[in-house]
Design brief:
Layout lengths: L2 H11 L16 H30 L6 H17 L4
Helix pairs in contact: 2-3
């Protein structure tokens, strides 16, 4: 198999679907997105605080480097979740 036949083979396999068959994902309402985004942030914050309390009881020390992460990661997770529909 030569280089030309490989590129021809790969070029023939990549076909785009027709424009009329495009499937679009329905965007939820703004209220639904706001509620789900807030829930993702609160759940992530709860998981982070739970982890901090668990390590405090188990290791008998608080990982101080993790406190800013526990506050910042829920915002990042909520924004990433919200951007799935934007």
């Amino acid at each position: 198999m030569t280089w030309i036949s490989v590129t021809t083979c790969f070029g023939a396999a990549m076909k785009t679907p027709p424009a009329n068959n495009e499937k679009t994902r329905k965007r939820p309402s703004t209220l639904t997105l706001n509620i789900l985004t807030a829930l993702v942030g609160v759940i992530t914050l709860g998981a982070g605080i739970g982890w901090l309390i668990y390590t405090w009881f188990v290791d008998l020390e608080v990982p101080y480097f993790a406190i800013p992460l526990v506050v910042c990661v829920p915002v990042i997770a909520a924004v990433a979740f919200r951007n799935l529909w934007d």
